[in-house]
């Protein structure tokens, strides 16, 4: 059954707005903090600590492969936690997702590295396993937080409320990279590589405890409470969503595609490209100073920025991510989700074609690339917490939105850093193919948006499959 047009003008009752904002925002901030801590470490320290017996490019690609394990896990997490979210409620599922990812993150901080005698094989294997558990948690977290916000939203404000959990992405990024930046500037490189990198992972335990406390105080969302009261809770929401909502699953997956590719190019790839030496001579001198082997044949040049300097540049860019995430909600309410996202995706397409001139424009060009890219990221990511859930009826909404969101993560985010590094290497250090890759993914998202109807006025209550 497709969603019907809202006829009631009453606002949902239950959780007060302040509690909705805090619970949806703090949960996704913690989840994304945990996720970005790993993403940053995957570039900065994990290649040397967990994949040391290879040339630098192969070690980096191995680290990115472990990074991608979480994206394989995310659809599994979406099915698992989506089932419970549509069976026993949003609140309980959200507590479980936070615990899953939080425990895995702390354990990564306690893990021996491959440099520890006897752990050469087990350390990388356990890293991948814990990364998989991180993905399980995040696979169910986002959709639950999105429903917590939007199913508590008054009429005409779902897209605005939906920006609350979306703000967790820039906040988590700033927290994670801010912690790494502080550690890198307050301790030696040797101490950071030996034990300092563990601090952000272990410290997440404090954030998880706070998040769980806040979520235990929640009431069930009004929309799902009506499903319970009317006896419409499904025994197998996963089977029902594939039977009755298979087309929205496909639409939602490709609507998210450009967003995922853009984000992981703007974070993981730009950090790699920005901090790679700009010449063979510089790279060789740095390797010799660190006492590491250097393979000139496998070297591809980057921008040559110092790691800390580029992290600061990234954080400045992410501030614009947060600003335009907030801006996107009112725009999506005024003009409609579909029109807003179509024009934003056109902007992403054009942006991909500007990679080479912007990356080649010195400091000003790189900052312009980061600011424009993250602004587009806010504009496209902000409305997604409203758009994807609106594609599905209430009793399969958690499962449907979670599956779309996380299958898209495999097609987009899981492979984006790996593909980008491969294209960068294939082009001999140029980013032209990386930009073309982003533009091509934007075309696929545009097609998905063009074949999807506007969802702004769909009902959120009394709407079941």
UniProtKB/TrEMBL annotation:
Gene3D superfamilies: MFS general substrate transporter like domains. SUPFAM superfamilies: MFS general substrate transporter. PROSITE patterns: MFS, SUGAR_TRANSPORT_1. One of its GO terms (molecular function) is symporter activity. It is found in: Cell membrane. InterPro entries: MFS, MFS_dom, MFS_trans_sf, Sugar_transporter_CS. Belongs to the major facilitator superfamily. Metabolite:H+ Symporter (MHS) family (TC 2.A.1.6) family. May be a proton symporter involved in the uptake of osmolytes such as proline and glycine betaine. This is Putative proline/betaine transporter.
């Amino acid at each position: 059954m497709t969603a019907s047009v809202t006829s009631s003008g009453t606002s949902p009752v239950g959780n007060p707005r302040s509690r909705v904002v805090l619970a949806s925002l703090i949960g996704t901030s913690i989840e994304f903090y945990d996720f970005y801590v790993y993403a940053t470490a995957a570039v900065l320290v994990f290649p040397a600590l967990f994949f040391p017996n290879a040339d630098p490019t192969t070690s980096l690609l191995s680290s990115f492969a472990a990074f991608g394990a979480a994206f394989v896990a995310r659809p599994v997490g979406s099915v698992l936690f989506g089932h419970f979210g549509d069976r026993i409620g949003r609140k309980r599922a959200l507590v479980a997702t936070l615990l899953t990812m939080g425990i895995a993150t702390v354990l990564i901080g306690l893990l021996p590295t491959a440099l520890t005698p006897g752990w050469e094989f087990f350390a990388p294997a356990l890293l991948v396993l814990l990364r998989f558990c991180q993905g399980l948690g995040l696979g169910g977290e986002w959709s639950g937080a999105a429903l917590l916000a939007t199913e508590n939203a008054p009429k005409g404000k779902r897209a605005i409320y939906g920006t609350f959990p979306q703000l967790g992405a820039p906040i988590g990024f700033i927290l994670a990279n801010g912690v790494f930046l502080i550690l890198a500037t307050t301790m030696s490189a040797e101490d950071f590589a030996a034990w300092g990198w563990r601090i952000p992972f272990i410290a997440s335990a404090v954030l998880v405890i706070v998040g769980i406390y806040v979520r235990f105080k929640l009431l069930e969302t009004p929309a799902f409470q009506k499903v319970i009261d009317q006896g419409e809770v499904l025994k197998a929401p996963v089977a029902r969503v594939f039977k009755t909502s298979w087309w929205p699953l496909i639409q939602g997956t490709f609507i998210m595609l450009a967003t995922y590719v853009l984000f992981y190019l703007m974070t993981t790839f730009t950090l790699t490209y920005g901090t790679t030496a700009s010449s063979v001579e510089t790279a060789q001198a740095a390797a010799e100073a660190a006492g590491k082997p250097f393979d000139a044949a496998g070297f591809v040049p980057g921008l040559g920025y110092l790691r800390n300097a580029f992290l600061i540049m990234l954080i400045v860019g992410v501030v614009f991510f947060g600003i335009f995430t907030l801006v996107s909600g009112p725009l999506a309410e005024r003009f409609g989700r579909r029109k807003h996202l179509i024009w934003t995706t056109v902007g992403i397409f054009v942006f991909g074609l500007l990679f080479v001139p912007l990356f080649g424009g010195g400091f000003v060009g790189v900052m312009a690339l980061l600011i424009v890219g993250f602004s587009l990221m806010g504009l496209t990511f902000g409305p997604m917490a409203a758009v994807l859930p609106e594609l599905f009826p209430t009793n399969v909404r958690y499962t449907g939105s979670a599956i779309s969101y996380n299958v898209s993560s495999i097609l987009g985010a899981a492979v984006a850093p790996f593909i980008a590094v491969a294209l960068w290497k294939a082009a001999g250090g140029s980013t032209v193919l990386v930009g073309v890759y982003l533009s091509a993914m934007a075309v696929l998202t545009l097609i998905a948006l063009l074949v999807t109807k506007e969802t702004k006025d769909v009902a959120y209550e009394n709407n079941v499959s």
